[in-house]
Amino acid sequence: MKIYVGNLPYSIRDNDLEDLFAPYGEVVSASVIMEHETRRSKGFGFVEMANKEEAQKAIDALDSKEIGGRALKVNEARPRKPKY
Q1: What pLDDT score does 22 carry?
Q2: Which domain holds residue 30?
Q3: Could you give the CA distance from residue 45 to residue 70 in angstroms, rounded to a whole number?
Q4: N or C: which end of the chain has fewer CB within 10 A?
Q5: CATH number of residue 40's parent domain
Q6: SS3 per residue for 42-84
Q7: Is residue 82 part of a domain?
Q8: Is residue 84 part of a domain?
Q9: From CA 12, how far away is CA 23, in angstroms rounded?
């Protein structure tokens, strides 16, 4: 299950995001979205977890949790809308 994680501190990197979700289950992938030109975090990312139950536990535990002075927004990722 893919999870959207918003309002991340700009210092968070992929491995930090993975470490944040690891206590709740198997993390398949974790990526912070970066600006191409500056390589600075855009303040959000995605985590994919091995199963829905573990993902839901992580969402329940981490949504609104304060990290680096920012309250995270964590929910199930929605499919991308076409650009056209």
Answers
A1: 98
A2: 2-76
A3: 14
A4: C
A5: 3.30.70.330
A6: EEEEEEEECCHHHHHHHHHHHCCCEECCEECEEEECCCCCCCC
A7: no
A8: no
A9: 17
